[in-house]
Amino acid sequence: MIELKQLTKQYGKAGSLTTALSELDLSIEKGEIFGVIGHSGAGKSTLIRCINLLERPTSGEVWVNGKNLTSLGKKQLQAERRKIGMIFQHFNLLSSATVYDNIAFPLRLIKTPRAELERKVSELLALVGLEAHRDKYPSQLSGGQKQRVGIARALASDPEVLLCDEATSALDPQTTDSILRLLLDINKKFHLTIVLITHEMHVIQSICDRVAVIHQGGIVEQGPVTEVFLKPKHEVTQEFIRQEMDSGEALRLAMQGQVNGPSRAVQITFLGSKTYESILSHTVHETGVNFAILQGTISTLKDTPYGQLIVRFEGEERAIEDTIRKLLEQGLDVEVIH
Amino acid sequence: MFGLDFTQIDWKEIWTATLDTLRMLGASALFSFIIGLPVGVLLYMAARSTSGLVRFGYTILSFIVNILRSVPFIILIVAMIPITKSIVGVSYGVLGTIPPLVIGAAPFFARLVETALNEVDKGVIEAAHAMGSSTSQIVWRVLLPEARPGLLAGMTITIVTLVSYTAMSGQVGGGGLGDLAIKYGYYRYETEIMILAVVLMIVLVQLLQMAGDRLVRHFTRK
Questions:
Q1: Average pLDDT over residues B35-54
Q2: Where do transmembrane segments lie in this chain (chain B) (predicted)?
C-alpha cells in the first residue's frame, strides 16, 4: 500500500546540512495499523509528512497505492492527496468554520453536489458522535471533540490511507483511549490503512499491528507489535518499553533478595490464549519446584492477550531445568536472566 | 462661551463638506481595498514561494510598497497631478483627490493584509494542502476566511487613516471637512467653523472605529 524507498531528507544549505531521514526503506500493508515510534527529533514527523509530500524528500521515492507520488505533477499530486486523509496533533481545524463546514471542506474542494454533501457529512457526524455539535465552532469544543472533527474531515473524501501525526499527544489519557478506539473501529469498518507516529508506547500497544522504531533518521527495528514489544532488540526500543512498564529499578531490587539453595530467575512470556491457562502452576506441581513472582504484567497488545512474568524458581537444580524444559515444550517463551 | 458664536454658521456649507468627505472616503476606501487585497495576498504568497525568482519578485514588490508608504501624502498629491489628470480628467476637487488617496492608502492596506494573513495558523494551511487543495482554494477557502477578523481590523485602520488624508487633500482644494477647517479656521480666523469641522471628523472617526470593532468581534471565533 505504502512503499518508501531510500528516502532521504536534508534541511539547510550545503555546508550546514541536517539530515532528518537517511536512506530509509519502509513498506506498509493494506488494511494494517502501522505505528512509528521515536523520540522528538528522531525524524518521525518528517517521515509522515513525506508520505503525502507535505515535505518533499531530498531523494528517494514515495509509492502510495501503486503510484509514485514523487514523480507526479502538481494537479495529479493534489488528486492523490485527496485519497490520503491526515489528522494532526493540534487538530488544524478552520477556526472560522463550523463543525459541519470543517467536515464538508474536502467535499467542497471537489464540488460535491449539495444533497450528497449533506448526506455524507451527516453520516460522518454520526460516525464520530458529534451530531449535537454540528453548528458549533472549534473553539467551543474540547480537545477530544476537535480530534473527532479532524477524523471526520479526514474521512470525508473516502481515503484509502489515514495518516495520524501525533494525533493523541495533546489529549489526556482517557480522551486518548476513546480516540484510539475510534481509529480502531474505522480501521475495521472501512479496511482503512492507518499510519501513525507517536512517542507513546501505549498508543502502539493499544491499536497497532506492526511497529517501526525510528532513531536518528533511520529505522532501527520493526516487526509485529507482539514481537517488538515482548522481545525488543534495539536499546531505543527497550527504553520505550521500560518507560511504559516502569520496571527497571523495581526489578533490580527484587533480584537482590538472597535465597538458600539453587535458584534461577527467568522471564516467561505468554502470548494469545495461553495467557489465561494455568500452565505455570501445573508444571511446578509436576516438577516440585517452588517459585516467587518478582514482577509481572498481564495485558493485551491490540486484541492479543499477553503475559510477561519474571519468576525465581527455587528447588533442586535438575527440577528447575526440568521445569524450564516443560514450559518451553508447552509453547511458552522462557529466558533465563539470572 | 469662550467668545465663540455658532449662530453665524452656514449649515449648508457644512453639509456639502460632510458629503464631500464621505464621497472621498467611500470611493478611495473601495479602490484601496480592491487594489490592496490582491497585492497583500501576493506579498504573502511570494514571501513563501520555493522559487528564488518569485522571492526576488517579493523583494521588488515589497520595496515599491515601502516607497509609496514613505512618501508624505501631501507630496504624493502634488507629484501625482499629471497621473491624476489622465485618470479622472481633473486634478482638483473631490474627484481629483481620489487617485492620490488610493495610491496613498492601498500600499498601506496591502501591508495590513499581509500581516493579517501571517497570523493565520500554519497548521490549518498544512491541513488544506494535505487535503489536496489548489493554491487558489487555499487563498479563498482558508486564508481569507481565517484572516477575516484581521482583514476587517485592517480595513478599519485604513478608513480612519483616509479620514486624515482627506483633510490634507484640502490643501489642494480637495473639498470636504478638512478643506473647510483650513479655509475658514486657518486662513480667515473663523474658529467656529474650524471647531465644528474638526468635531465632525472626530465623530466620523469614532463611528467608523466602533463599527469596525463590532464587525471584528462578530467574526472572531478564537
A1: 91
A2: 25-46, 58-83, 89-110, 151-173, 193-212
